[in-house]
Amino acid sequence: MTLTAGVLAVQGDVSEHADAIRRAAATHGEEAVVHEIRHAGTVPDCDVLLMPGGESTTISKTIAEEGIDDEIVGHVDAGKPVLATCAGLIVVSRDAGDERVATLDLVDVTVERNAFGRQRDSFQAPLDVAGLDSPFPAVFIRAPVIDAVGDEVDVLATWNGRPVAVRDGPVVGTAFHPELTEDSRVHDLAFFEGTPAERDTAAADD
Length: 206
Fold this sequence. Notes:
Rossmann fold, 31% strand
């Protein structure tokens, strides 16, 4: 089975996310063909979508100018999965607490940007993530935190009592950077729940 994955290539760890989705696919006997997305027209052909970190104001402005924002919304409306990390989480949130960020309102959360401090305050921590059988080595870099969570949002992980990973329908958002380790379990959690046969059955039922 071949999976078509799109990585938003405006900013951030594009190649690292591409490598992670390929590793996650390989553990399920699948191949991931990865496309870097810089312009409109590619997202509709993707089975899954990854939104890396970077500067959320720049990302939101660029995807709006390129017409990618509406395609991302359409992707989610079609029930296709998204993994949004760090600034990606900010962009898909309901409210970023900053009028400079045009959020996509795909995840019913409000976020606080750079809540864990600046670059020098970056850290790695073993994080208990729902659905994983052992702690994940989460890397936090100028990370946001989630201030408020809607009723339909599942909190997958917390740090110091605050949510740092959530799932809202087909979208998984993390405040940390799962692509910066060799551990691809968060990508697996976002995109490969169940066997290929189970996912095909679910798709057919829809």
